[in-house]
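Hi P.,

Sorry for the delay on this. The queue was packed all week, but I finally got your sequence through. Input first:
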Amino acid sequence: MKSSLPQTQFVEEDHLVAELDLLGISYLSRLGAERASSVRPPAQLVADLVRQPSARVREALIAVLLAHPELAAAVPAALAELSPPEQLTLRVFYTAAVLLQQEHADTLQTFLTTQWRFLPDLFAMELGLPHQGSPRDRLAQLGQTHRRLSGTVVNWTGTYENVARNLLRRLEMEHQWNRSLP
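Then the structure:
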């Protein structure tokens, strides 16, 4: 199956997915045999994920933040590198990660004990999200806000939840595989 992406985008996407694999974000399939030996600096990683033309890779930013909350420190530097529409994407995806982390805190803490910490809420006020309500209710409000601000007719709430489901399913499977090893 031939990709419709220009060759340079294909190579960049595949390399980025290979880097995500090094970070434990292994639910995304690679389109080629690309391997990565290291991960780019945090602010560049965050910005490059947001810039990706491929939605599946761009949305993986949410999984990266859930699995590596320490990368929150790189968000302000990444934001400075992005265009206004890309900045909106980063703010919304980051806020989705904050809310999904709150919703799935127990499970994430079980699988990510070494690097666990809550993501600071950097953008909810700016996006007009209320501080009251369950993470699930606030995530639905974020999805509506994202739809309105981006002008896209997308089920953003379902998109955010799908990323979390993919990550959690993969972490669960890896946990089970590791337990079954002698």
